[in-house]
Write a structure and sequence with these properties.
single chain, alpha+beta, paralog of FGE (formylglycine-generating enzyme), 4-stranded mixed beta sheet, 3-stranded antiparallel beta sheet, 3 helices, 10 strands, globular
């Protein structure tokens, strides 16, 4: 992404349009403070600088876009505007490569640092919405961090992307709907400041972020980390593009 780029980029593949939003370079504290509700031990706070601006998908990759590129729709919950799911980390990368060939551009999964930075969108709270996230703000099961609390409602499945308000940088569904694959292997955060981190060089699991429709808000926090085997396919896991 050129340093002077400030406008979204729209591409069209087989009649399906998708948009990427410009994300500025900058610094932030990755991870969570010890007093954040629902915090987990893998979220050690540390300063991170992303030295170059980049683009990020306005929404998770939809089923209609995945179908247009790959010729199949693996989703358990069909709907053209719903996020594609049941896609492994490997398949998500194959999609990025093929999409790049069709568009004459380079796409990839975001690094974990890029994802959290874009999710926070300049905020420092647990969610881009503030200290709390409710079922009117994201496609989640319940707003409480208490696992024993009564479920507020049962979504039962994914929702169309962009069904809720975007974060301050114009990104939809960064909290909830589906977990989103990231490029990195899972590993402990580095000590001290990190510049353009890409995660450990090797590992067993790949990172996913953002929470999903079947989980409470605490699991949709900006700092929350989850990891799966790269061949995992599940109705709660999708992905988003960077360029």
């Amino acid at each position: 992404m050129p340093s002077d780029a400030s406008q979204p980029r729209t591409f069209t593949v087989q009649g399906v349009a998708f948009k990427l939003v410009p994300i500025p370079a900058g610094s932030f504290t990755m991870g969570s403070p010890e007093d954040e509700a629902g915090r987990e031990k893998e979220e050690a706070p540390h300063p991170v600088t992303l030295s170059k601006p980049f683009y990020m998908g306005e929404t998770p990759v939809t089923q209609e876009l995945y179908q247009a590129v790959m010729g199949v729709n693996p989703a358990k919950f069909p709907g053209p505007k719903r996020p594609v799911e049941h896609v492994s980390w490997t398949e998500a990368n194959e999609f990025c490569a093929k999409l790049g060939e069709l568009c004459g551009a380079r796409f990839s999964l975001p690094t974990e640092a890029q994802w959290e930075y874009a999710c926070r969108a300049g905020t420092q709270t647990a969610f881009s919405t503030g200290a709390e996230l409710d079922v009117k703000q994201a496609h989640i099961e319940r707003a409480t961090a208490d696992e024993s609390a009564k479920t507020e409602h049962d979504p039962g499945e994914t929702a169309d992307v962009a069904s809720y308000k975007p974060n301050p940088w114009g990104l939809y569904d960064m909290h909830g709907n589906v977990w989103e694959w990231c490029l990195d292997y899972f590993g402990a955060y580095p000590e001290g400041e990190a510049v353009d981190p890409v995660g450990p060089p090797a590992g067993k699991f790949r990172i996913s972020r953002g929470g999903a429709w079947r989980y409470r808000s605490a699991l949709a926090r900006a700092a929350l980390r989850r990891w799966y085997l790269p061949e995992t396919k599940h109705a709660i896991v999708g992905f988003r593009l960077t360029a």
